[in-house]
Amino acid sequence: xxxxxxxxxxxxxxxxxxxxxxxxxxxxxxxxxxxxxxxxxxxxxxxxxxxxxxxxxxxxxxxxxxxxxxxxxxxxxxxxxxxxxxxxxxxxxxxxxxxxxxxxxxxxxxxxxxxxxxxxxxxxxxxxxxxxxxxxxxxxxxxxxxxxxxxxxxxxxxxxxxxxxxxxxxxxxxxxxxxxxxxxxxxxxxxxxxxxxxxxxxxxxxxxxxxxxxxxxxxxxxxxxxxxxxxxxxxxxxxxxxxxxxxxxxxxxxxxxxxxxxxxxxxxxxxxxxxxxxxxxxxxxxxxxxxxxxxxxxxxxxxxxxxxxxxxxxxxxxxxxxxxxxxxxxxxxxxxxxxxxxxxxxxxxxxxxxxxxxxxxxxxxxxxxxxxxxxxxxxxxxxxxxxxxxxxxxxxxxxxxxxxxxxxxxxxxxxxxxxxxxxxxxxxxxxx
Length: 432
Hints:
Strand order of the largest sheet: 1-2-3-4-5-6-9-10
Order of helices and strands: EHHEHEHEHEEEHEEHEHEEEEEEE
Mean pLDDT: 97
Low-confidence stretches: none
Number of strands: 17
Number of helices: 8
Helix content: 10-25%
Strand content: 25-35%
């Protein structure tokens, strides 16, 4: 399962120290001195990331590949005598590392003279067609809904049906990202924080990219949403999206908090790690990623729940059902799970330990191939005086829910599902 992917903002802004380029930058400004996409891919792989999404074209219109439908590309640059192609090098690097590749292609273009006219929609469709046809299979097409003025002072009315259909035709397995999907949605902020309640479903009728539901709706989703459009949390390891010499990566504690508040709240994490002017991921950023990976691996190395005798107030079919037995909750097989009968929406799971355990983290997972169901639950523990105490309460679970709790020592724990839209299905419980 993909949980964290790498975003790479890279382009003229890397060299001009801007976040949004003006579109009139000389192509020669783009001149990485030691570009090594293999280093990017190796870093992502070692950090446990499943793929890399590259800003193939940002708002300035500069294309990191020789796009024949633009005159503002690497082909017009003196870099590699106009023979450079970042997408080709990244494709080879991702394939060698065994990770996936995706593209960010901004429809806003501050360079193209036709921007603001119907002709630009055709140009952008041709740009998409060229990029999506020549670099192998892509796992995600990332659309930014930004829509500002072009070089002629006009704004564009984007033809989203044309753009999305082009992606669907050329890359049928690619997830399309925008603030309204249709594959996955923007989480509503760039702080690395999915909603405390985070549904994978969303109502998007009447909305388009750039004209999305309210930010809190994007953050939380809709409980009874008509479309499966899970959240993707995009945040940068540094203050800015592009590399800036005077900026430095976030601390390990900050990144762990982002992990808990994104992946741990039913959202994929897209962590931006910008290459520098050499075309390399800086050492301090790479080191921080390795620290994050090591911390996550250590925190979730030993599952104390495996020490428990687990019982359920109800199990689908019968309590000893092999297919739905509570033993599947700790068997580390993603595709095995515990479920209840159709009539039971609010069951209780009991974990009893022969020897008291001490923990401060709880992770629960629903079996997402069968949908997201649980809307509210709470966890109780038995104290030394024989009293049951509520340890924590939460709403949605989804693919993964991680709760940080006060440190407690107990021999008896209960997970009580208070509200579920359908019979609950859980495939994992983890305590540490």
